[in-house]
Amino acid sequence: MSEFEYVAVLVSLVLGLGIANILTGIGRMINRRSEFSLDLVHIMWSLALFVVLVLNWWVFFQLNTFTEWSFEFFLVVVIWAVFFYLMSVVLYPIEKNTVQDYGLIFEKNRPWFLGLFIASNLSDIALTALRGQLLNPPFYLPFVLHFVVLGIIGLLTNSRRYHTFLASYVFGISLTWAFWVRLLLGN
Predict the structure, then answer these.
(1) What is the 3-state secondary structure (H, E, C) of the chain?
(2) How high is the pLDDT of residue 33?
(3) How many structural domains is the chain composed of?
(4) Which spans are transmembrane here (predicted)?
(5) What is the pLDDT of residues 138-156, one digit of tens each?
(6) Which of 51, 153, 165, 180 is least surrounded, with the fewest CB atoms within 10 Å of its CB?
């Protein structure tokens, strides 16, 4: 078993648990639709996070050719995956929720969710830097940092319009990256 395969098992479990938690939450939302008030921001973040998790799981596979594994690199990879899982748990708390309004759930957990969103982007930067590819391609760093800035703005505002925009934007950018930009870049 290669070092990548060893790490990939753990990362796959963590990201897979995040995907499973989102799907379970969406299933609960559908099954209990008469009991819970739906919320556009929450739904958009659910879609965005699902796509981001699947996309990052796919992109993680690019590390299969990486040969300079160290404990520090392993740790950053694991932390990176954990941030995504925790985002899914903050979006869809695992315990039985007495709150029956997804808008209230999101607002209550918004600082944690956006803090984890920012942390996931910063850990992606750390992961890329440890691979020695921080400026390859040259637009990578500004691209990821703009998500950090948008997340910080989200922490500072209660505007439902902004949060709908942010979730929709992350969803749209993720789909664009998954289906168009990757093809243009040749991977």
Answers:
(1) CCHHHHHHHHHHHHHHHHHHHHHHHHHHHHHCCCCCECCHHHHHHHHHHHHHHHHHHHHHHHHHHCCCCCHHHHHHHHHHHHHHHHHHHHHCCCCCCCCCEHHHHHHHHHHHHHHHHHHHHHHHHHHHHHCCCCCCCCCHHHHHHHHHHHHHHHHHCCCHHHHHHHHHHHHHHHHHHHHHHHHHHCC
(2) 81
(3) 1
(4) 6-26, 38-61, 73-92, 112-133, 139-157, 164-185
(5) 888 999 999 999 999 999 9
(6) 180
